[in-house]
Amino acid sequence: MSCSVLVVDDDPAFRGLATRILVEMDFVVIAEAGTCVAARAAAADLRPDAALVDVGLPDGDGLALAQELAALPWRPRVVLTSSDPEAVSPSAGVGLGVGAVGFVAKDELPNAPLRTMLAGN
Known about the structure:
Elements: E1 4-8, H1 12-24, E2 28-33, H2 36-46, E3 50-54, E4 56-57, E5 60-61, H3 62-70, E6 77-82, E7 102-105, H4 114-119
């Protein structure tokens, strides 16, 4: 069974790129969202197995959204992303204590171990 993923990023071009990468890896991208509000609605309606969430969103904090998504009753796996490779790191003072299973800098997405992080295998 394929892993369903919600892609959350305010940049439509990046969402498209991330979706193509995930589909090529046999993930099923069930929705894309550009805001926290849209992501919450999509998650509630579609119950994704996982979510790829940008740290910086126009209507809220991607870290807080990641924490909300990871705490949903079906426990989707959440991976954070950002164009800033230090956005989620001990040196930036921001950790993965928000329920996310990992972080990938956007420029590293094609080479990241997404199968392990998003699907848990």
